[in-house]
Amino acid sequence: MAPPLSDEEAMTSLPPLRDVIAEHGLGARRSLGQHFLLDLNLTRRIARSPGDLTNELVIEIGPGPGGLTRALLETEAKHVYAIERDRRCIEALQSLTAAYPDRLTIIEEDALKFDLRSLTSGGEVTIVANLPYNISVPLLIGWLRQLSSIKSMTLMFQKEVADRLAASPGSKSYGRTSVITQWLCDIDTEFTVPARAFVPPPKVISSVVKLLPRPQPQAPATFEDLEKVTAAAFGQRRKMLRSALKSLVSNPLALLEESDINPEARAETLTVPQFCQIAENYRRRKDANVA
After folding, report:
1. What's the whole-model pTM score?
2. Do 196 and 241 have their domain in common?
3. pLDDT category, 151, cuts 50, 70, 90?
């Protein structure tokens, strides 16, 4: 029996990604938000962005033909779990699974429904992914709800979405996602990726963003109440808060005054701690049955 291949030998024995795509008929599907990243220099740069992955459990979403997966396996990550719902891609990844039987697991699952805690056994995972554009924000919000299981997230978004995550109060990009993400995470934009790097090229530029969970949220609040407050406030962002929050409470003036917020302010001018203060007072009023 031949000895097992080393990781380096296993990687060099793999077919080129374009051959994998051709063999398995992997035309990118718009319904799945697929844009495949084949540039190995870029995939390696993404894989390096989280820092040292030695002995880490890594989760990738939507591996496609496996470009980023290969780069992650080149690191010293203990194990890579690739979550994929496209049966064509799962079949295309079999050669990669065969080359790394002890370090790669393909999970056929809808990432939006997948519970990260099923893999952690109380520990933490590192998420590294070129996210499908059409579900990137719902995926992020779902992971923010499971943040105790996550060490870091290095994610590729449309640049517009990445800008929104890091936006400051007062900017046009600042919104609900900005507030909730910044409440829980420190955000660093690593680099941008041109459309021509993908197959097929999207109509937008992409950005790779690293999110590190904060030791503690920026300010006290519950996820549910902060979501409700920001949904109401930014749902009518051109209106003053005294009007925008009428969809949340019958007496927004009292809630805003209790939170020491100018009722004539607009949502995009408030800081994350100010939104948290409104959310906490909203919770207290709700618990006391005060409208």
Report:
1. 0.91
2. no
3. very high
